[in-house]
Amino acid sequence: MKPSSLFFVLFFFAVAAASSSSSSRPQCKAWLAQSIPTDMPLLPRVPGVLSTGEVLRWLAGNATKRLDIIAQYWQLLAQPENPKSGDYGFSAEEMERFGAGEGRAVYKSLEDAADRKVDLRILQHSGVAPDFDQESADLALGRPNVQNVTLLLGDWWGSGIVHAKVWISDGKDMYIGSANNDWKSLTQVKEVGVYLVGCPKIAKQLEIYFNNLWTLSFLNSTDYTKKVWDKQWQAKRKVPCWSHFIHEKDRCRSPLPSTIVIDHVDGYPALSDPSMFHIPFETPGSNLSSTSHYSSYLSFAPPELSFRKFQADEQGWVETIKSVRFGGTVRISTMDWLGQSQYLTQTVYWSSLSSAISEVIFSKRATVNILVAYWAHFIENTDQYLKSLLYSNVLCQSSKYNHCQGKVNIKYYKVPGFEKTGAAKSKNNATGNLYPSYTRVNHGKYAVSDVRAHIGTSNLIWDYFYTTAGVSFGTYHPAIVAQLQEIFDADWNSPYAAPVESLISSE
Ligand SMILES: *[C@@H]1O[C@H](CO)[C@@H](O)[C@H](O)[C@H]1NC(C)=O
Ligand SMILES: *[C@@H]1O[C@H](CO)[C@@H](O)[C@H](O)[C@H]1NC(C)=O
Ligand SMILES: *[C@@H]1O[C@H](CO)[C@@H](O)[C@H](O)[C@H]1NC(C)=O
Ligand SMILES: *[C@@H]1O[C@H](CO)[C@@H](O)[C@H](O)[C@H]1NC(C)=O
Ligand SMILES: *[C@@H]1O[C@H](CO)[C@@H](O)[C@H](O)[C@H]1NC(C)=O
């Protein structure tokens, strides 16, 4: 090497080192993050997985310029004194035992970031009782660097909410996962998410989605929506006027930059080449290190908010199921499971995920293990849909000419104490409840095959894919795949999971 080129290399190295405060080689890093409810002594812990509470505190704590948050609602501060709260009537000691301090610490980290003049943008749904968006309003009060915006997706899609749970710090660090901005999501509800650090390329795309939601909140939905006959889902419903559920010649020009444009289609077909990140990342939470480049992706719901070649969230789920190798295993963990819509006026039948599962158990001889939450707010017709899926095992074996050796197995996940949740007092009487309301549930939403991991924010019901805001991160990185499998197996093999009884005796 000539001295001049050596000088250039050294100079370049020095510039690169100076531009990165912590290391000379800026590198994207990924960890899995979990919340594990208190009082689950029989659940083995997976080493190297971070806790959601610490991840959220770090995102706020490390923010120097800006912090963007998508939240359904705010309940970081517990309210045992408020008769309207599901925390009502529990003593201060009980609240500490439940882990309420963790929520307080996350809220404090947000206040501190706001006081450091970090530009905080909060995009939220209208919140929940008892005090709805009071916490974000409190953060915004008297701080011009904090913006709080409520976006009602019902105005745009007829129903639906902002349900994504996303934090983006300084355009490079992120949380994407199932945890709400709720103290209970840190220590009383089981959650799974991913923490990405130093990944500006991924953050930049996530911010486009954030900005799309932000833009909608400032537009008059009356001017930008249409009621149409949706041929794909056989329902009359309201959609944004640029939706592919509207006939091509009747569509408007999208006010969002670079939304997906696909000619000659009704609805949103799967993309043949969805956008992938080919960014190498480290996985410090795992011993399985790898320096190769494995693809990763983001997927978004509803599809009208997807852009460029980014896939819709449903495609992300379906293709994770279908990524399973011949004879391999898919693991799916979810709070809800319904093969239909829940909130639409017309009830829509939705078999996208169950079809994908049946397809791989038939032709690929795959095993599919599904963990569904059973809790105080269990949706009553879940059981019928699960049994319908279990019937695939019967169909698989229904002819001696079938070469079908796959199997679907389903278990209900019961966090102990779920039947004893609710306020501790009603008026002045003790209720006998052992935990606050909306606790003691597996709320994680993810799928992992033997090659690909998909971590989402959406419940597995039609509405979450077509009218509700949701985001997923997926990757083929073997360390994340293996660790997510470990998280699933810890739950699946624990005494808290019990098989769904099949109506049919297939064996
Ligand atoms: C890594 O390996 C060591 C030694 O086997 C073990 O103690 C540790 O728990 C492992 N860490 C992770 C994150 O798996
Ligand atoms: C910043 O994040 C790192 C982990 O990514 C964490 O160790 C550190 O404590 C965080 N700093 C603050 C001030 O929160
Ligand atoms: C935002 O915060 C301000 C200041 O507290 C409050 O007056 C306003 O109602 C909040 N807006 C929303 C949409 O929550
Ligand atoms: C939205 O637009 C409609 C029709 O163009 C109009 O009647 C309505 O007042 C507008 N709403 C707002 C909040 O500007
Ligand atoms: C409290 O319990 C008593 C006895 O069960 C009942 O008579 C009374 O109506 C209850 N009070 C309230 C406010 O629920």
From TrEMBL:
* Species, as recorded: Canna indica (Indian-shot)
The yes or no answer to whether the keyword ATP-binding is present is no
User: Which first-to-last residue range defines the signal peptide?
Assistant: 1-18
Q: Is Signal given among the entry's keywords?
A: yes
UniProt keyword annotations, A-Z:
Signal
Q: Which InterPro entries match?
A: Diverse_PLD-related (IPR050874), PLD-like_dom (IPR025202), PLipase_D/transphosphatidylase (IPR001736)
Molecular function, one GO term: catalytic activity
Q: What is this protein called?
A: PLD phosphodiesterase domain-containing protein
Lineage at the top is:
Eukaryota, Viridiplantae, Streptophyta, Embryophyta, Tracheophyta
**Highest taxon above the source species:** Eukaryota
| Span of domain PLD phosphodiesterase | 158-185, 438-464
